[in-house]
Amino acid sequence: MFETLIVQPIFNALMLLYSIIPGGDFGIAIILFTIIIRFALYPLVRGQLHQTKLMRKMQPELAKIKQASNGNKQVEAMQQMELYKKFGIKPFRSILVLLIQLPIFIALYQVIQVVTLHRDQLAHFMYTPVQNVPAIKSIIENPDNFNHTMLGFIDLTKTAFGNHGIDFVLLALALISAVTQYIMSKQTMPTNNSSKKFRDIMKEAADGKQSDPTDMTTAMTSGMMKFMPVMMFFIMVGLPGALALYYTASNLVATAQQHYLLNKDTDEMDKLADEVIEAEVSTSKKKKAKEREKQASEGHITRITAKESRKR
After folding, report:
1. Residue 37: other Cβ atoms inside 10 A
2. Burial (CB count <10 Å: 0-12, 13-18, 19+), residue 93
3. What's CA 175's distance to the chain center, in Å?
4. Residue 161: phi, psi to the nearest 5?
């Protein structure tokens, strides 16, 4: 099912893009494919960054909750969750974008396995209309004609380190993917004045002090922001260049999207955040008005009932 629903559509999309590039270039096809995917994810990314804006606008309210809780961390955490729920904030919504990209990443790996090790099975993965495209028909008939390089010299089926030695271009791709991963995380990092490190918080906990949930979240996010790029670098150097190219291109486009949405489009994002807050406040007021109306109605009925009882 995964092959039918995910691998084949991606394989055919890549082959079509490959066929329209003069001379055929698998690397350029991957870059074009990546750009299309990132723009298809634009609504989700926009929603994710909208959540980031809301989180930043909630910082004063979170500070008030912290002050009002008088050190009671349990009450503080509960009130924070209620605030998030009230304004529709979902701190882990960004995971959705990652979950959508994961099957694409896995499918790309399978596509690379096909074009590297099983070129005789190209027709098996292609839809009939795609097989009839002249450039693709030529590849099916002569699989060795498939150009798995980028710009004619970057072999995208190899890894950065291997029997061939060190491929410095692929190594540079892995490094760029790590740097862009850091920039992406930095762009969406919640604003918080806390400078406590995770080890400091754990030390306080060992001494019997209750940790601040906000400080804990900030410390963990900061730690992941530094750890993830390093981890991704070592993952990318061990994967075929085509995957490193996809991940790097995806990060570059995502960084540009986030920069635009968080900086160039600030007014619109703030307006959207304000609309959500105003809608929630308006809904809250309406609920309170209905409750008061209900209480007044119940009080009126009670008074009538009391009068009738006295008459009897």
Report:
1. 18
2. middle
3. 20
4. -120, 135
Reduced to 3 states (helix: H, G, I; strand: E, B; else coil), residue 210 is: coil
Tokens 């099912």 locate to 1
Round to whole Å and give the CA distance between 53 and 103: 28
Per-residue pLDDT of the chain (312 residues; tens, 9 = 90+): 788 888 889 889 988 998 888 878 888 999 999 999 888 888 877 777 777 777 767 777 777 777 777 767 777 778 777 777 777 776 666 666 777 778 888 888 888 888 877 878 888 888 888 888 888 888 888 888 888 888 888 888 888 887 778 888 899 999 998 999 888 878 776 555 455 554 555 555 555 555 555 555 555 566 677 788 888 899 888 888 888 898 899 889 988 888 887 775 555 545 555 555 555 555 555 565 566 666 656 554 555 554 555 555
Structural domain spans, the chain: 2-259
Residue with tokens 């308006």: 282
Please identify which residue in the block is written with the tokens 């098996």: 124
